[in-house]
Fold:
Amino acid sequence: MASSSDEDFVTLSCTQTEPNPIGNNEIFITIKDINSSDLSAILSCKTVKIQAHRDMLVEDSSFFEGLLSGSFRESNLNCVSIEWTIEGFINILRSVYGFPMNSTSGNFLSHVEDALYFGSKSLLSKCKAWLNAVASSNNPELQFDDLIDIWNFCRGHGNDSLPEICALYLARNFMQAISSNFFGAFPYNLLLCCIKHPHLTIQSEMDLSDALLVWLNGNSNREQLELPNEVEDQSKGLLKQIRVCLLPLWYIAGKQRCCYFSELAKESIQKISRLVEISPPYPAGIFEDGSFGHLRIRLTESSKKVNISGCPQVTSDILFLSLLRPEYYVDSTQRNIIQQSLITFDLPSMLQIPSGDLYGLSPSLSFEAVEEVDISKCPRLRLKSSIELFSKSFPSLRKLIASYLLNFMSTNVFILIQKCPLISEIDIAVDVTPLIPEHVTVVCTSVISVSWLGGNDVFDTGFFSPRTCLSRITRLILEGRSDVSDLYLQCITKQCVSLQYLNLKGCISATDIGISVLINGCLKLHSIIVCDTSFGIHSIQALCSPASNIGPSDSESSKRCLSTLAFKLQTLHMGGCKGVDENSLRDLLSKTQTLKRLCLRGTHLIDDALYSFSSSSLEFLDISQTMISGDALAHIVNLNPALKCLNTKDCKNLSQHGSNNSGLADSHRELFSELGKKCKLEKIVLGWGISWLSLEALKPAITSLREIQIGLGGSLNEDALRLLPTTCPMLESVVLYFQMLSDTIVINIMALKHLRALGLCYCFGDISISSFRNCFPNLTKLRLERVAPWVTNNDLDVLILNCVNLVEFALVGCRLLNPDSLRIISNGWPGLTSIHLEDCGEVTQTEVSCLYNCRALEDVLLRHNGKGIHSLFIIVAAKKLPLLRRLSLDTCDAIDGEFEIPDCKQRGMLSTVEITRCFINPEKSYRTEEHKDTLVLEWSGKSCTKTVVEERL
Structure:
């Protein structure tokens, strides 16, 4: 009979269930052995025996409880045989004896399987703790295919706790899951639990919508759905979780033809339109449920980016709702207070009261992880209130994108810097004015000062003195800002001492001296974009002058070169800057050594300047509209093998020999030979000098080409154009000017797998609708200008059927069209953001109200299409199309011969309206309308400017 001490133990003999190619047949180990760091010898055995404490096994494991203390005959035996994997058996014993477990993404499921098979409470608890820790970590380490296996295994074995954590993990890491190869394989129930989870972390509601559509369209999912109506049921179950009131207008407008999304898209547009038309205070009927869930932007502790761009329906009140504590939505009394407050008060403005609180409500939730916010094209946000919200709820905010918001004045940058001290990147770009001084001849101009009504904030735009505290701004985009003056640049210079990247493109109010003062004061600048500004000789001198902080030990040559900002420049875009003479440009280029991006479009660039350029790091070069020869360009190409983008549009001298007096053929041979041998291009814009032979020489460089444009002066024969898709199979954008076309050529181009944009402009030859009879779901931009006069309404039907996802559409010279054509276009492509129709028969002969079906339009051009546009069109369009920014019309198409101009309250998001005016030439024997002038209306944050120019813009 065994002693009492022997009865406390039982010998466990585990036989490996998996084949073992090497190792001893049997080994006897101790408890100490299972805690060894090297278990390789044990794991290689066929059978492992170990003496374990009976009570500890029974207490932890339901398997051993039933085996050793039940009615089984093994309960009286001193040795029990088990068939299981040796590694799993060792894991159970390690857990029973409290040894640490080494779980990883790769072995976690086997640990769970061990725990469930043996009913081990401790191992299952450790698995749950590990998965919880991984799910709560900011650095995801669980592979998504493993996550799917864990979910399926646990659900199949009746375990409910681990699937809940799987849903949490997927919810917190949803953005990474979207881009994984396994997203389409996620089970429906896991995906649904994830979307409903309060920790679902997405950057925008659009991301969630896109992800669900991808999942629903996935082949793997359709194969799983075998029951009748299961596809429809699951799509409804998923899509109803989307908060349609928070989708971008342009996005939802484009989904009206989606098979899964059409009904939801129509519902969303109705709700968004209602929100846009209602200004605070809100009527009670706007609140669909007590939790305001349909109006709350998704924010969690894991959110790093908040993107509500393109949502004109979003107001500061809606943003405020998203930042309130959850308890305010749980308690019915608090919900009623919120609802009544929104109906009767402007909540964000109440943030300014001393207590910062309204009826005990305060957006005190702080989302520490949020570093980036995008509020572009959200004109109904009150900027002062929004900045206040950002400062309180996003303390780690480092990047704000607020482009195309005229009510965000440039001086708001200083308020933002003071309220959000960690911010380092700001983008407040707007549309660049068409009135670039070098391009237009002004007849007269007038300025009307305006004051923003309807709650839009305005800061005093006179002298503005920011606080003396230094900001962390490194990247500042002010593109198109006409209110950026020299005084403003002085403020930037004083406060933004860390500035590295500055975009002043189209800032026509800043002078050369003002820009030079900024350059002298911002010694860390390495990227400057000053296209179409007064950037000139003074600014170049500032770039080429040695910095004032040079140490005494530096040599004279270092002071002259290494210490200049020019030497450190990585990006220099100065296209259209006519104030730079040839000598200054040569001096500047001779001192730039690290440039990666260079734009010299339309400058006084000559060969000598390029020959003085010695940088070998260029990736982007734009020398369009200059007098550069092929020899000088070949010199640059030879020095810069990393060149990826090249623009030589309108460079007529590329067809001439350079200063080295090489012949024409030699010049071209050298240029395109160097390009072909040295570079791997991604984008190229060519004109004068490009030919079939040139393309042949370029072949090695353009195998990975994504964008190509052939313009005036270029001549590719039919063979070259026909072979373009095979030569450049990765092409996404093809634009051809003045080329000889045929249906064969167009069909070959349209067959490109990755084609997104196609432009055929002023080309010769004979093409027909047969070129577009295949399906092109990837095509989003289509321009047919003076190449398709045969287009009829039937042809439009074909285009709509085969190019379902167009967002930009332009037709010029299609004179067979009639008023029904506009209805066909607007109904067929409701998601258009840009439409240009010029000289298109009688498209606007009766009326244009059907155009309002394209609710997301941002850019509209209607010229010479029929005298049927009402005089109130501009005002009505600004109201019906909440994202409309640019509008171009002609008085020839106005019923009354003129258009009424909207005031500040009526203009919506309009920033520029161009109205061309024509007259009948009495000297000609036939009736013809000739251009007279163009009236340009521009709105800024402080004024409306009316300018008449001679040019036809």
